[in-house]
Design brief:
CATH superfamily of the largest domain: Spore Coat Polysaccharide Biosynthesis Protein SpsA, Chain A
Strand content: 15-25%
Number of domains: 2
Largest sheet: 9 strands, mixed
Number of strands: 11
Radius of gyration: 19 Å
Shape: globular
Structural class: alpha/beta
Number of helices: 12
CATH architecture of the largest domain: Alpha-Beta Complex
């Protein structure tokens, strides 16, 4: 395992108990902090009983960014591994991540290859949101040319997940972060409750001259959606709008709000049952106010 002084692990939890044991076992022997956002499933008691060496921080549910920040503050290692409660590293992956980070002092964030539970690739590299990129996703344009950057830059179309490459941002399910970069750029923006917090962070790192790298020499299995049950579709949309308003201006975010609403009205009519209702409800929410109002939680 990686040297205790070089890396620590931060796991934010909210009712993700079914996967937490496997998550923490995968980083056994490494300094770890679980930040619990008010779980009601016995998470805190479980961690204290099953993993007594793991530090536990309890707080009300202030969101994922706030939980990660409390974990950063509770550690002092050179590197911080941010790991989802529904994700776990494969054997030796943390060692390899740290060794790679040591060879790339220009990298603020390194993301490993993410796998589904069946061992297939979970595409984890993304492009920063723009109104056009959101249009290619929400109007299904990316399906016309999934490997095209013109129509699928949002999902990094054509990105090769078999070699080290620079990325715009990588999914927050598993990130190795350099503390020196955090000291320069700052912690996560806690205005992002859930979704887009890592997008904003990676953008700020890039603006400061740091690199975000994809490294396939380490692997992490990610269940996906387990900690929020897929019930926060609106928060995902809010994250897009918050990112755009912050980094591209409210006018850009307003354009995105309007196109997202049209796309979701169409999706609500196209799909039946619960999925269609989710899209229709989201479209109604997007039409209920302008961007500043929608960004109020």
């Amino acid at each position: 395992m990686a040297d205790d002084a070089s890396a620590a692990v931060v796991v934010a939890t909210y009712n993700a108990l079914p996967w937490l044991e496997q998550c923490l076992e995968s980083v056994a022997g490494i300094d770890a902090v679980v930040v619990d956002n008010g779980s009601s499933d016995g998470t805190v008691a479980f961690v204290r009983e099953r993993f007594p060496a793991v530090a536990v921080v309890e707080q009300e549910n202030l969101g994922l960014a706030a939980a990660w920040n409390r974990g950063l503050e509770a550690t002092d290692s050179d590197y911080i591994l941010i790991l989802n409660a529904d994700a776990w590293l494969t054997e030796g992956s943390l060692d390899r991540l740290v060794a790679f980070a040591e060879s790339r002092p220009d990298a603020a964030v390194i993301g490993p290859r993410i796998l589904n539970q069946d061992g297939t690739l979970q595409r984890s590299v993304r492009g920063f949101p723009t109104p056009w990129r959101l249009a290619t996703e929400y109007f299904f344009l990316r399906k016309l040319a999934p490997r095209s950057r013109a129509l699928n830059a949002f999902y990094a179309g054509g990105f090769d997940h078999d070699e080290v490459r620079e990325a715009e941002f990588v999914m927050g399910a598993c990130l190795l972060v350099r503390r020196a970069a955090v000291a320069e750029v700052g912690q996560l923006d806690e205005a992002f409750f859930l979704f887009s917090e890592e997008t904003d962070w990676c953008y700020r790192f890039a603006q400061a001259g740091w690199k975000v790298l994809f490294y396939p020499g380490a692997e992490c299995v990610h269940v996906g959606g387990a900690s929020h049950g897929g019930q926060l579709y609106r928060e995902n949309l809010r994250g897009h709008l918050r990112f755009l308003a912050k980094h591209r201006g409210v006018r850009s975010a307003e354009r995105a709000r309007r196109l997202l609403r049209v796309a979701l009205v169409a999706r609500g009519r196209l799909f039946q049952s619960e999925r269609g209702r989710m899209y229709s409800d989201a479209a109604t929410w997007l039409g209920s106010g302008d961007v500043p109002r929608l960004l109020e939680r």
